Structures are given as C-alpha cells and as structure tokens.
User: What shape does this take?
Amino acid sequence: ILGRYSDGPPSPPQSKRARKMKASDG
Assistant: This one.
C-alpha cells in the first residue's frame, strides 16, 4: 500500500494498475 501511495500525483488507470501489479509482485 505504501508504494501505491508513494506514487504521489494521480496517474491514469493504466499507470495505477501497472504500479499495483508491481507492488504486489515486490
């Protein structure tokens, strides 16, 4: 969750999904 919030500015749904997947992977 921290990683997702660390993103900062609101990104498009695609970017958010990619980040979410990466965070889950990590």
